[in-house]
Design goal:
Nuclear Transport Factor 2, Chain: A, two-stranded antiparallel ribbon, 6 helices, 41% helix, 24% strand, rod-shaped
Length: 251
């Protein structure tokens, strides 16, 4: 026969087992927990030292960056000084000149060693200049001669005035109150052209007929003039040429 099972009594309380599990650590006490939390907090002095170290590292990095910038600027300054020395001492720029008229128009500049007028233009200028200088009267000879002097160089004007004094034309015009006019008797003839004393020159001969008139009285002379024309700067003569020598004789 089976034994009857015992029914637990509900009035009895369960019994708890209190013990230590093998291999596990003992639970921390409240005092130990508080001590651990106090250990994690840093001391104020340590926090201040850390801030100083970080700030010093920032300044050190900034100082190194500034050194690099300064070195770069020094290199740029040295390169600029070298470039200035090259431009001033080594590379000498050439001066460029240009001529202009009174109203500001550019005028082509031709070297004095080269001709600047064509042969017909030169012959026309010689005929005009030689007749203009021998056209004056007793009342305006000073003004007309002064205006005609622009077609001569300084040496050429001295040679012309010397020839005029030797011929006594001015004295005769003043005493007889005459008016002198000149005109080409034939076309100018080119005798020679080429480079002479660094300037391009022409030697031209032109026959003139000179008329002296005072009231109803009239007298004519045949004059043969040999001119030496040279290149001059356009600042001295608008045409770029001037009479360097005047040699005249009757015939």
């Amino acid at each position: 026969m089976s034994q009857p099972q015992q029914v637990p009594d509900a009035s009895q309380k369960p019994v708890k087992r209190v013990g230590k599990q093998k291999g596990s650590k003992p639970a921390a006490t409240p005092a130990q927990t508080a001590a651990a939390s106090d250990g994690q907090e840093q001391h104020p002095f340590e926090r201040g030292v850390g801030s100083v170290v970080i700030r010093n590292e920032y300044y050190r990095d900034g100082y190194r960056t500034l050194q690099k910038v300064v070195m770069l600027l020094v290199v740029c300054v040295i390169m600029l000084i070298g470039a200035m020395y090259y431009v001033i001492s080594v590379h000498q720029p050439q001066d460029r000149y240009f001529a202009t008229t009174v109203d500001g128009r550019l005028v082509p500049m031709v070297s004095l060693s080269q001709p600047n007028l064509s042969s017909p233009a030169l012959m026309s200028w010689v005929a005009q200049a030689s007749t203009e200088v021998l056209t004056f009267g007793f009342h305006d000879y000073r003004r007309r001669l002064q205006e005609s002097s622009r077609n001569f160089t300084r040496t050429g004007w001295e040679s012309f005035t010397t020839a005029l004094e030797r011929s006594s034309i001015l004295e005769m015009v003043q005493n007889n109150r005459q008016v002198v006019t000149a005109a080409p008797r034939a076309a100018p003839v080119l005798l020679w052209e080429g480079l002479e004393n660094g300037r391009y020159s022409w030697r031209i001969e032109i026959p003139l007929i000179v008329t002296y008139q005072s009231g109803s009285q009239r007298k004519t002379d045949s004059l043969r003039v040999t001119l030496t024309v040279v290149r001059v700067p356009k600042l001295e003569s608008p045409n770029g040429v001037g009479i360097e020598q005047w040699i005249s004789y009757y015939g």
